[in-house]
Amino acid sequence: MLTRVAAPCILFFAIVFLIFSASPYAKGRRVNIALSNPEPKAVRAAPGDKFSWETITPSEELIWADCYADNQCARLKVPLDYSNPDAASAAIAMIRIHSIVPHNSTNYRGPVLINPGGPGGSGVDMITRRGSQISTIVGPEFDIIGFDPRGIGRSTPRASFFESRSEREIWSSRGNPHTMSMNASADALPRAWARAIIEGQLAGERDDGSLRFINTDHTARDMLRIVQAHGLEKIQYWGFSYGSILGATFASMFPDNIGRFIIDGVADSENYYANEWDNDLIDADKVWSSFIDGCVAAGQEGCPFFSPTATEISEKMDKIYATLRERPIPVRTNTSFGLVDYSMVRRVIFQALYAPYARFPDLAQAFADLSAGNATALFKMSEQPPFECAYDNSGDRLESVLEATFAVTCNDGSRILPGYEDTVTHYQKMSETSTWADVWEPIRIACVAWPEFPQKHFRGPFVANTSFPILLIGNTADPVTPLWSAHKMSQGFNGSVVLTQDSAGHCSISGPSICTQKYVRQYFLEGTLPAPGTVCPVIGTPFPTDDVQISTDAQTVLSLSAADRNLFEAVRDLATTFDIRFPIGL
Ligand SMILES: *[C@@H]1O[C@H](CO)[C@@H](O)[C@H](O)[C@H]1NC(C)=O
Ligand SMILES: *[C@@H]1O[C@H](CO)[C@@H](O)[C@H](O)[C@H]1NC(C)=O
Ligand SMILES: *[C@@H]1O[C@H](CO)[C@@H](O)[C@H](O)[C@H]1NC(C)=O
Ligand SMILES: *[C@@H]1O[C@H](CO)[C@@H](O)[C@H](O)[C@H]1NC(C)=O
Ligand SMILES: *[C@@H]1O[C@H](CO)[C@@H](O)[C@H](O)[C@H]1NC(C)=O
Ligand SMILES: *[C@@H]1O[C@H](CO)[C@@H](O)[C@H](O)[C@H]1NC(C)=O
């Protein structure tokens, strides 16, 4: 067993990775206050992959087998290369939460496909962990379907270019740029670039011929196959974050196959396919400000890192940064050990920006401790389970891996110039857009030496008269998918509507809003869209504020109908346990 020193596995790249886990530091404290029953609902622990996917033979028809407690799983056989469909095939791993009504009931509403983002995110993981809340929101008349997009997780062939788990682990535990701030040292950026040269070479040399087919175009085609395998023509879909790029791609390629379609946490697909990554962060500083302002407003009682003014809190942060740059702090816990350094603090904050309701209180406590010289809490916020060498083969073959994200982003994106100067120029430009460029830049760098596959896939334009109008959802302050992109993408889709949620955090489910999720449910069930310009509030704030507010929130919750209370519990659970691991790091 190797211990992951300095928790190198919180990887920071993809647009998001809505991998959810039962987080020890997400206790749902704020919104729980507003509930008559304040006990946080037990969050089901991530089920190790006890189910043996090899027992399912991939088939072109959907054959469901029981798996993971009370779900069903299937592996759908699809062409590896859609331009040569009789050649090799791929197998898409799927999981289903069955509707509560039988499929021959008139109340049955068919499958809803879910994508958790990434790219590189596993839909199977998302559904095993958070499927019941998603099902509560969408409605029990629907089947909820998670799938691992091609190349990822349990879908085969897998995008993987290390020869063993140990080889990958050893490589990634030493100066992995996805755990580094590019502002940590003078050589952080050139090192990230140099490492990407090696990774690009490995990707090319170790490719068995399948790597070039791991892209969003083909995943969209796979989604259509999933729909058709159900005997249906029209898709019902809810995609988060990168799932908005997958969604915009699908809707542009197959506009006549749209039944119900929500993209939530909407990225600018044009910018993504251009491999630019330079307008994702335009609201990230707004989210960080909401931490500072929220802490000031919450007072000493509500925020352990309190100071009377935002300026004073910023000064305390600068001091933490400066101190850690000079001297990292050694930390030991009973399960691991490592250093809290500048990079780690940057990453932990950035990660918290995705999920203020789950993380801001812990972040404030960790900073208060850090200011007093105790780095344990901060370390724990990025602590990873120890790396186990002795997994059996099935575990080895099915876990999500880092390379799957590169495979998708680099295959999808335009080629970037391989020279280091181009990376420097890009980083400088990014730094002018956001103070979080240091943690975002490595995503694009991963493609500097990617193999030069022919690029024949769909990459726009993202316009369509869809067979049903699509619903886009954006938060007023989303760190990586700004509201601006939802409006931009909406322009291409005739009849589409943008629903705004007034909260900080990534995707609607990072904030507890009954309003938003009722619109989601109505849309799926009745096909009604919110009026253009609708803005939904959330209940509560990440930091406890004053008693008046708390009691107002409590009143709101107490006045809910039983059905809405149920919905509220689902949104509260999602928001307060929303735990992002940048690709794969579970
Ligand atoms: C629906 O299917 C179930 C079991 O497959 C069957 O027992 C029932 O009679 C069917 N109902 C209708 C209305 O067809
Ligand atoms: C890098 O860090 C220094 C010191 O913390 C800070 O002043 C500077 O703004 C940072 N630069 C970037 C590009 O993040
Ligand atoms: C670590 O220590 C805490 C507190 O002493 C204890 O509750 C926990 O079980 C320990 N964990 C392990 C893995 O030993
Ligand atoms: C540091 O903080 C942790 C909680 O995160 C606490 O358990 C520990 O006792 C503290 N260490 C010291 C030396 O105060
Ligand atoms: C949508 O329909 C309108 C009118 O029928 C047509 O002018 C327009 O070109 C269509 N747009 C797309 C993207 O097909
Ligand atoms: C949108 O769809 C309507 C109805 O099909 C059509 O009349 C209109 O021209 C379309 N608009 C655009 C901009 O494509």
UniProtKB/TrEMBL annotation:
PANTHER family hit by this protein: 2-SUCCINYL-6-HYDROXY-2,4-CYCLOHEXADIENE-1-CARBOXYLATE SYNTHASE, AB HYDROLASE-1 DOMAIN-CONTAINING PROTEIN-RELATED
SUPFAM superfamilies for the chain: alpha/beta-Hydrolases
Originating species: Mycena rosella (Pink bonnet)
Keywords: Hydrolase, Signal
Domain spans labelled AB hydrolase-1: 111-299
Signal peptide: 1-28
UniProt domain Peptidase S33 tripeptidyl aminopeptidase-like C-terminal: residue ranges: 436-536
Family per record: Belongs to the peptidase S33 family.
Protein name: TAP-like protein-domain-containing protein
Database matches in InterPro entries: AB_hydrolase_1 (IPR000073), AB_hydrolase_fold (IPR029058), Pept_S33_TAP-like_C (IPR013595), Serine_prot/Carboxylest_S33 (IPR051601)
Taxonomic lineage from the root: Eukaryota, Fungi, Dikarya, Basidiomycota, Agaricomycotina
